Amino acid sequence: MELTPDDTIIFTLGGIAINATIVNTWVIMALLTGVSVLITRNLRPDVPPNRWRTTLEVIVGLIQSQIEEISQRRDGRLLYFTGTLFLFIVVSNLLTVVPGFDSPTASLSTTAALSLSVLVAVPMFGIGSRGVRGYLRTYLEPSVFMLPFNIIGEVSRGISLAIRLYGNIMSGAVIAAILLGVAPFFFPVVMDMLGLLTGVIQAYIFAILATVYISSATAPAPPDDAKNAKEQT
Amino acid sequence: MSIDWITVGAQIVNFLVLIWLLKRFLYRPILDGIDAREKEISERMAEAAKIREAAETAEAEHKALIAKLRAGQAGALDEARAAAEAERDAILAETRKRLAREEAEREAQRAEEARRFTAELHRSGAEALLSLTRKALSDLADETLEERIVAHTVTRLREVADELRDAAGDSREAVVLTRAPLSPEATERLVNEAASVLPGFTLRFDTDPSLGPGLNLRLGGAQVGWTLDSYLDGLEAVLEDRAGRAATQVTQGSTDAA
């Protein structure tokens, strides 16, 4: 039994093995992009919105409102980042019910990549908001002795994000596979339904935590930090 | 459980590409659509507010116009009613005037008819009386009416000779007026009697077809003679008196019966 789709090699391209994780990620990317293009291709103010457009507007509006509730401001870049995180993870998790489809989020490489993205995005958003010195100064708070602990906390946040998402999705898939062998008629269905719920919740948690991390890094700086950032620029 | 770092790198690239794709095909179109719709809704609401304001203004103007029209309508009704009453009064006055005129015309026509009837009756009565008198005189006395008229005139001439002379004044001519020329015998007798009663006076005989049967001798301001009209007038007075008595009796009979 393969615990991760990384081990399933679909084809090789230029000596690089393209595994099921990457291919399935492409499938999800194509699905999300295709649906978006189909729905938004005829989007004009003079055309009344149909039910699909309204559905997309509701989804995007919910994501935006959640981000605004957390960050207390409207930020388009944060919407693009965390909204894409949520949509990618939730679609991946929901597609675990498709027979033969290995969810990319069941791969630790995928969750690690997403966590690394968040880890990189947090300082980038923080630097973009506070400046380099203003952001680095946050590692010295409340005192300089807290620098190693802040660095460890930053790294452990990424690791916890990756392990949490991977563990939940992979374990759900593994448990469903095991129960399929033991009791093939009832429990796998229940576990799949539970897996759907868990997948949506995990996608929500991942996106919310990423939003919280980025928002904490981009929160308005104290007067001293703002002054330093102004001097730096 | 292991991490394939090539896969990690590929997934990071995939994720960044997905961010770009969704930003290009999902977020921006949707957010721009929402913003455009919100803007359009705001514009439409502003436009609706303007239209509503204009509609309220138009409604107020319309109501004022209706009130004005109603007030004018009431005034027009009063004017029309007054005009109608004036027209009615004018028509009534004109009708009354026309009725009075027609009544006067009818009254005049009735009077004319009565006059004609009376004249006809007078003429018929005169002819009948004259005829009867002639016949009676012819049958009973073997005389003509003209002879009796002349005899009557001679008798009256003798009675009032003095009064005639007094009334003659400076005039010395008496005029004998009849409807038709007198017979020679009657003329001669009348001339002889006048010469004896009124010496110095001459007689001149004259005729007037419009006169009734009879004879008039005029001297100055006095006259003497006999005419049938005087008799007919007396007969008419008697008839009217009889008719009045008959009407009074009929009225009393009706009152007693009631």
UniProtKB/TrEMBL annotation, chain A:
GO BP terms in the entry: proton motive force-driven plasma membrane ATP synthesis
Gene Ontology molecular function: proton-transporting ATP synthase activity, rotational mechanism
Any Pfam family: ATP-synt_A
Chain segments annotated as coiled-coil in the UniProt record: none
Residue stretches spanning the membrane: 16-39, 78-101, 107-127, 165-187, 193-214
Leader peptide range in chain numbering: none
Main location: membrane
GO cellular component term, pick one: plasma membrane
UniProt membrane topology term: Multi-pass membrane protein
Keywords (A to Z) from UniProt: ATP synthesis, Cell membrane, CF(0), Hydrogen ion transport, Ion transport, Membrane, Transmembrane, Transmembrane helix, Transport
Compartmental location: Cell membrane; Membrane
InterPro entries linked to this entry: ATP_syn_F0_a_bact/chloroplast, ATP_synth_F0_asu, ATP_synth_F0_asu_AS, F0_ATP_A_sf
PANTHER family documented for this protein: ATP SYNTHASE SUBUNIT A, CHLOROPLASTIC
Family the UniProt entry places it in: Belongs to the ATPase A chain family.
NCBIfam families, A to Z: ATP_synt_6_or_A (TIGR01131), PRK05815.2-3 (NF004481)
Reported function: Key component of the proton channel; it plays a direct role in the translocation of protons across the membrane.
Protein name (database record): ATP synthase subunit a
Species, as recorded: Maritimibacter fusiformis
From TrEMBL, chain B:
Annotated HAMAP family: ATP_synth_b_bprime
Main localization category: membrane
Keywords: ATP synthesis, Cell membrane, CF(0), Coiled coil, Hydrogen ion transport, Ion transport, Membrane, Transmembrane, Transmembrane helix, Transport
Annotated PANTHER family: ATP SYNTHASE SUBUNIT B', CHLOROPLASTIC
Family from the record: Belongs to the ATPase B chain family.
Stated role: Component of the F(0) channel, it forms part of the peripheral stalk, linking F(1) to F(0). The b'-subunit is a diverged and duplicated form of b found in plants and photosynthetic bacteria. F(1)F(0) ATP synthase produces ATP from ADP in the presence of a proton or sodium gradient. F-type ATPases consist of two structural domains, F(1) containing the extramembraneous catalytic core and F(0) containing the membrane proton channel, linked together by a central stalk and a peripheral stalk. During catalysis, ATP synthesis in the catalytic domain of F(1) is coupled via a rotary mechanism of the central stalk subunits to proton translocation.
Cell membrane in keyword set: yes
InterPro entries linked to this entry: ATP_synth_b/b'su_bac/chlpt, ATP_synthase_B_chain
Protein name, per record: ATP synthase subunit b
Pfam families tied to this protein: ATP-synt_B
Subunit structure comment from the entry: F-type ATPases have 2 components, F(1) - the catalytic core - and F(0) - the membrane proton channel. F(1) has five subunits: alpha(3), beta(3), gamma(1), delta(1), epsilon(1). F(0) has three main subunits: a(1), b(2) and c(10-14). The alpha and beta chains form an alternating ring which encloses part of the gamma chain. F(1) is attached to F(0) by a central stalk formed by the gamma and epsilon chains, while a peripheral stalk is formed by the delta and b chains.
Organism: Maritimibacter fusiformis
GO cellular component, one term: plasma membrane
